[in-house]
């Protein structure tokens, strides 16, 4: 075991993993974190705690992660490269591990332009690939990035993101290979709507032998409305929403669009369960945490395995 | 070349409001070529200032002198006899020239007339695009002659990130994705293996003021 995290154990044991997501509050509201966490208890193997997502300032990811540990849930501590240099990153990694955080997701981060401080100085001292390698070095070699020895290595299960849909498509599987080379243990993908393209990407990863070296969790975000689908199609960079998805939502009865969205997500999850090279699903129910129990139930991923 | 743009008029006017005799020094190299701080721009700024101060009932006497390069002692020397006649100096050179001027006349207040915006190419008259951040460790040899430090909004060394959007950067449809361009160029050249390997973190060497002494040269005795 690299980290001994629940997520690692579930995946190692060959179970189909199911992870969720929780966005920390725009303030010091601990209760909001606890309330959102309540919906996820027993329904997911780990919960991603986002790090200033879309470059909006929120309660820090590690702090909200600690609240989750207190609640008996397993956090997946997200860290972006935008807001910290290598000193702050390593310090937070050690602090997170010291508080019982066992999973970490290494990301570049959305550009600060999108957030509430658009003229902030973006740090990007290291990139997400280099962050993966840094965490691995800390964990496996017991060394800081500088090579100096650590007084106890942080035991972390190392995750990263992959976007099979951003162009150039042909390069994406090679970038996945680079993340594996850097030392990643598991991957969570961008929200999947274009199933054809995703199948093709997973096939490439299978053919290159990558899925034997890394656990891939397929990203699923149920559509709540036609407006959301259109927004994601046109306004979210790197997102691929085929017209059929929008048409199917438009075809839903009045008041039943969200229901159709959940149905589509469940159909996707059913396919991922059978898809060679896919080890689980990462459900990003954005500001929809209360729907996770229902989605998990209907997707047939309950009860979660005890490992 | 180094490019700059003139500061907003009100900002310049406010900086020199307490001075009656001001020398405006242009620079005849980079900032002249990019239409920000050469002889012509010095003349334009001076006439604007003269007019505005007259309207404010606070007349100003302005001098104008454009030298070849403000980053070079040899040319600055030409100002030595002039500056004593003025209370303050405006420099329309890049940040380098402004500082060298201020260093030469430490008793005189020196004010910037431009904002230096980077090292850029001249796409057309009046249109400049940044290409280099002078990181000191050029990777253009492996990235197909496209700089990821400057051209990628996140300065990634292992791009492209997931935000590539139809060949553009996530920050704007008008900003091409540097890593998309790097991929395309290397693919055409059959050199994709250049970026298949993980690139480790950069040991930044631009975090302190840098001094460069070319090989075969040394600091003169009196300056050492």
Task: Using brief descriptors, characterize the structure shown.
heterodimer; A: 307 residues; alpha/beta; TIM Barrel; 8-stranded parallel β-barrel; 11 helices; 14% strand; B: 224 residues; Rossmann fold; 3-stranded antiparallel beta sheet; 8 helices; 9 strands
Fraction of helical residues of chain B:
25-40%
- Order of helix and strand elements from N to C terminus of chain B: EHEHHEHHEHEEEHEEH
Average pLDDT score of chain A: 97
Domain unit count of chain B:
2
Radius of gyration of chain B: 22 Å
Greatest contact between two chains: A-B, 36 and 29 residues
Which regions of chain B have little confidence, pLDDT < 50, spanning 5+ residues?
none
What is the fold named in CATH at topology level of chain A? TIM Barrel
Radius of gyration of chain A from CA coordinates: 18 Å
Q: In whole angstroms, how far apart are the ends of chain B?
A: 30 Å
Number of H- or I-type helical stretches of chain A: 11
| Number of DSSP strand runs of chain B | 9
**Assembly status:** heterodimer
What is the CATH homologous superfamily assignment of the largest domain in chain B?
Response regulator
Give me the secondary-structure topology:
The complex is a heterodimer of chains A (307) and B (224).
Chain A: H1 6-12, E1 17-22, H2 30-40, E2 46-49, H3 61-70, E3 75-80, H4 86-98, E4 103-107, H5 128-141, E5 157-162, H6 169-182, E6 186-191, H7 195-207, E7 215-220, H8 226-235, H9 243-250, H10 257-274, E8 280-283, H11 292-298
Parallel strand pairs in A: 1-2, 1-8, 2-3, 3-4, 4-5, 5-6, 6-7, 7-8
Chain B: E1 2-6, H1 9-15, E2 21-27, H2 30-33, H3 39-55, E3 61-67, H4 73-76, H5 80-83, E4 88-91, H6 95-104, E5 110-112, E6 114-124, E7 127-132, H7 148-151, E8 168-169, E9 172-176, H8 178-188
Parallel strand pairs in B: 2-3, 2-4, 4-5
Antiparallel strand pairs in B: 1-6, 6-7, 8-9
